[in-house]
Amino acid sequence: MIGKIHKQMSHDSWLFSKMATPEYTPFVFLLLLFQSSVWGFPSCHATKPGMLNVHLVPHTHDDVGWLKTVDQYFYGDRNDIQHAGVQYILDSVVDQLLKNPDRRFIYVETAFFYRWWKQQTDDMQNTVKQLVNEGRLEFVNGGWCMSDEATTHYSAVIDQMTMGLRFLNDTFGHCGRPRVAWHIDPFGHAREHASMFAQMGYDGFFFGRLDYQDRNRRMVAREQEMLWRASESLTPPMADLFTGILPNGYNPPEGFCWDQSCDDPPIRDDPDLEDYNVDDVVTRFLHIAHGQALVYKTNHIIMTMGSDFQYENANLWYKNLDKLIRYVNQMQSNGSEVNVLYSTPSCYLQELHRANLTWPLKGDDFFPYADSAHDFWTGYFTSRPALKRYERISNSYLQTCKQLEVLGGPISRKGPFGAGDSETLKKAMAVAQHHDAVSGTEKQHVANDYARKLANGWAHCQVLVSNTLSSLSGSSAPRVYCEHLNISVCPLTETSKKFSVNVYNPLARPVSWPVRLPVNGTVVPVSQATAAVRRGRGYAVNELLFQVQAPPLGYSTYSVSLLQNGPPSPQSSPLPRAPKAVQNKSFSPQPSSLLSLCASIVTLRDFLSSLFCVCLSRYNASDGNNSESIQMSGAYIFRPNTSTPFIISKTAKIETLQEVRQWFSPWVSQVVRLYTDSRALELEWTVGPVPIGDDLGKEVISRLDSSINSSGVFYTDSNGREVLQRRKDYRPTWNLRQSEPIAGNYYPINSRAYIKDDKDQLTVVTDRSQGGGSIQDGSLEIMLHRRLLYDDVRGVGEPLNETSDIYPEGLVVRGRHLLSLSPPATAADTHRPLAQEVVLQPLITFTDGELHPSTRLEVQGPAPQFSGLQAVLPPAVHLLTVSQWDQDTVLLRLEHQYQASESKEHSQPVTVNLQKLFSTLDVLGVSEMNLSANQWKDEMTRLDWKAESGTHHTGVTNQLSAYSAL
Ligand SMILES: *[C@@H]1O[C@H](CO)[C@@H](O)[C@H](O)[C@H]1NC(C)=O
Ligand SMILES: *[C@@H]1O[C@H](CO)[C@@H](O)[C@H](O)[C@H]1NC(C)=O
Ligand SMILES: *[C@@H]1O[C@H](CO)[C@@H](O)[C@H](O)[C@H]1NC(C)=O
Ligand SMILES: *[C@@H]1O[C@H](CO)[C@@H](O)[C@H](O)[C@H]1NC(C)=O
Ligand SMILES: [Zn+2]
């Protein structure tokens, strides 16, 4: 899956050939010596075969930012907001583990553990190593954070897992490798996450949250533990993951919370004192244990003894747990058949494996998550759309930064522009994957902190990028970064009369990309919407639009000169490949019909007059004043107060230039663009400040209505990778009682969604994670922005009411949807690459040129060019990671990006010649690793699990047959 490419040693050409199914491309080559010792499970306490064994798992759930920032949580700062200090938790737990070798603890979030570790003495570090070696302190999950599953992209999740797991392996070796993935808090679970965890070598996965109806059914059927078959493309058991649902979310059973933050009675075990309560505690405990055993399959059950930021004074917990174990087990001499022990998730998992049972098979995912009839956690799919976009482009920027670190060599980190690094952005991105970060469910000041950390990471990467580009191009001119090109702000292009534009493409195939630059010269006038959203940050009246081509893993340079004022002369068009009008071979809109309902009816003649309209509408948020439920819409929860969206305006004001500009209201507008040769129609939406003068929260959607006969079915991607089928008012694994016709039909969209019938497929590619659904046949709606006036009582304690210094009356958000319409059989060939170009977009940088006397805009280029690859990779292969690993090795991830049977042409095996991959690196040898690069591939042994036959659920079977019918 992953290899390290060694530089500077010669080697024969080496060919890698792809298997029959798409997958993370494996390649095998061993150079380094490695230990082949197989590590068993760490010392687990003995269990009793004839008894009910209760595994007590002491744990803390430490959010990498939520109500406080990650740093405030670490130090225990701002305890007025929430009492929580991770440094004290780790201090206290280590101290308590040393007091009794029977005690166990698990730790999850490496972002915190890493901070703590750096501050320990050698003695303390050695002590902790011993605790880890003895299995008394066990790492579970072990990523930098516990990532969100609905709003993250797989590329960023793999990176954050790699970072945490690498620290654990570097620090603790084999004994530090987590066996169990542990996502106790994320609000629903993505199939792609399970697939990644399987490929990262985890033996099992535990979580706490799933739909309440699903849970009830699984409890009765004893199906809370199952085998998740998490990919339709990988050959089982490659993406099979044993998955267990924890009994109390991740909390202790009722009455047994002994943290300093809890009020449950301690065990009072002095028989001489009046308030002796051991009998009562033991009786209550046995009752709970027997009850729990009824809804699980084996004679082993797990209890999570801990919760959010618990164990700051670990003595309270351990003192009582020691006693609980002693007194409950003492009852065995009176015939009790319950055995309690300190345990960990991997010890529990080992017992389940030993039980040698068959487990139900799960093929779909765990979205959406509802905790009761009117409480669907589908709002956070869209919450904080600006942060979601910033996180997504930061990923693109980080991949570019890491590539240029490799391509530039040591000069990238210490060069003419100073000391640069990719580490700062890596850490900021890793923290941003947390389930209260990119999810948008944190307090406002914490959201600001995530954004600030990302911005700081960008600054460090910019130095690195400048160093490398200067070294590769031989020009030491200062490099200028314009981060506000989406709102046509770039001081350099607005003022300079001659400048050059460098377009770096992080994809392994050439791209053609439209560039829009703010200028005072000729060409497309800046729209009113853009001028309004800039708020004094730029003054250019026009945009220069041209199409650039950039080679794989490389750049092209264009030079732009202002030659004369006024309109361009017809002979020398300043618009190479600019759109003539909103029209190309795939889409032929008729301007006259643009004024009808929803404002932009576009007739697609090429596709037998499938008619569709794009319409920006909104829901009014429930304020809780409702006969069915008092649940309000908030950061987590989506609950509109009616099931019909409000059309914001039946007639939009339309301007047709080289693009169609629509005004639905002063705070909702959209630009529709078509580029020559483009496979897609671009919809650039601008929403905000959302008015709240009427005391109503609002959730703005873009709805695409078409004549496609979609029969209640639509498709969404899972973390940007495989696509899952969705069906209205339906769940593949249980009989749904639908109680929220809109919110209960929303699913996460990370990069694309589509509807289709026999003839047409309409795909929407998004530029960030958003929520969406298909409420009517032929229709696809995507939520763009939300502004809410109430907290939804899930802990964040603030209404989602975003403002900023520049937008004090409400945040304005802009984004893009790319629409493509193709026959279903070939649609993937378009939307996969399209989505990828949006995820890994080119980096555009500028250098100022000498002042030029003339004043007409002219674009020249591309020249010069550079490509880090010797040849373009085959279309099926995506270059997922190129990153410096240590001094002489590079971490490389190649991925077969097509799903099984998705594309006639591309869902086929491919061959890549690694030896001839890079133009500037010699490949000396390759060692294959697991997906998270913390295990050598041939050391990877996972527990095997047997699936019950006949439990492959209908949703998945249908989906497979739908594919094979294409
Ligand atoms: C597991 O169960 C199967 C029958 O389902 C049996 O053949 C096999 O021997 C058992 N394995 C162990 C280790 O008990
Ligand atoms: C560009 O044009 C705007 C509007 O005419 C003007 O305010 C601004 O000063 C101009 N900038 C330059 C650098 O000429
Ligand atoms: C929302 O934000 C606006 C602007 O800061 C403020 O005036 C208003 O009181 C806020 N409303 C709520 C419910 O927080
Ligand atoms: C993990 O750490 C061990 C001990 O330091 C080392 O031998 C091994 O190569 C590391 N594994 C990987 C995949 O880096
Ligand atoms: Zn959490």
Automatic annotation (TrEMBL):
<dbReference type="InterPro" id="IPR011682">
    <property type="entry name" value="Glyco_hydro_38_C"/>
</dbReference>
<dbReference type="InterPro" id="IPR028995">
    <property type="entry name" value="Glyco_hydro_57/38_cen_sf"/>
</dbReference>
<dbReference type="InterPro" id="IPR041147">
    <property type="entry name" value="GH38_C"/>
</dbReference>
<keyword id="KW-0862">Zinc</keyword>
<feature type="domain" description="Glycoside hydrolase family 38 central">
    <location>
        <begin position="375"/>
        <end position="454"/>
    </location>
</feature>
<dbReference type="GO" id="GO:0030246">
    <property type="term" value="F:carbohydrate binding"/>
</dbReference>
<dbReference type="Pfam" id="PF17677">
    <property type="entry name" value="Glyco_hydro38C2"/>
</dbReference>
<protein>
    <recommendedName>
        <fullName>Alpha-mannosidase</fullName>
        <ecNumber>3.2.1.-</ecNumber>
    </recommendedName>
</protein>
<dbReference type="Pfam" id="PF07748">
    <property type="entry name" value="Glyco_hydro_38C"/>
</dbReference>
<dbReference type="Pfam" id="PF09261">
    <property type="entry name" value="Alpha-mann_mid"/>
</dbReference>
<feature type="region of interest" description="Disordered">
    <location>
        <begin position="565"/>
        <end position="590"/>
    </location>
</feature>
<keyword id="KW-0326">Glycosidase</keyword>
<dbReference type="InterPro" id="IPR011330">
    <property type="entry name" value="Glyco_hydro/deAcase_b/a-brl"/>
</dbReference>
<dbReference type="GO" id="GO:0004559">
    <property type="term" value="F:alpha-mannosidase activity"/>
</dbReference>
<keyword id="KW-0732">Signal</keyword>
<dbReference type="GO" id="GO:0006013">
    <property type="term" value="P:mannose metabolic process"/>
</dbReference>
<comment type="similarity">
    <text>Belongs to the glycosyl hydrolase 38 family.</text>
</comment>
<feature type="compositionally biased region" description="Pro residues">
    <location>
        <begin position="567"/>
        <end position="577"/>
    </location>
</feature>
<keyword id="KW-0325">Glycoprotein</keyword>
<dbReference type="InterPro" id="IPR027291">
    <property type="entry name" value="Glyco_hydro_38_N_sf"/>
</dbReference>
<dbReference type="Pfam" id="PF21260">
    <property type="entry name" value="Laman-like_dom"/>
</dbReference>
<dbReference type="InterPro" id="IPR015341">
    <property type="entry name" value="Glyco_hydro_38_cen"/>
</dbReference>
<dbReference type="GO" id="GO:0005764">
    <property type="term" value="C:lysosome"/>
</dbReference>
<keyword id="KW-0378">Hydrolase</keyword>
<dbReference type="InterPro" id="IPR037094">
    <property type="entry name" value="Glyco_hydro_38_cen_sf"/>
</dbReference>
<dbReference type="InterPro" id="IPR050843">
    <property type="entry name" value="Glycosyl_Hydrlase_38"/>
</dbReference>
<keyword id="KW-1015">Disulfide bond</keyword>
<dbReference type="InterPro" id="IPR013780">
    <property type="entry name" value="Glyco_hydro_b"/>
</dbReference>
<dbReference type="InterPro" id="IPR011013">
    <property type="entry name" value="Gal_mutarotase_sf_dom"/>
</dbReference>
<dbReference type="InterPro" id="IPR000602">
    <property type="entry name" value="Glyco_hydro_38_N"/>
</dbReference>
<dbReference type="InterPro" id="IPR048534">
    <property type="entry name" value="Man2a1-like_dom"/>
</dbReference>
<dbReference type="GO" id="GO:0046872">
    <property type="term" value="F:metal ion binding"/>
</dbReference>
<dbReference type="Pfam" id="PF01074">
    <property type="entry name" value="Glyco_hydro_38N"/>
</dbReference>
<keyword id="KW-0479">Metal-binding</keyword>
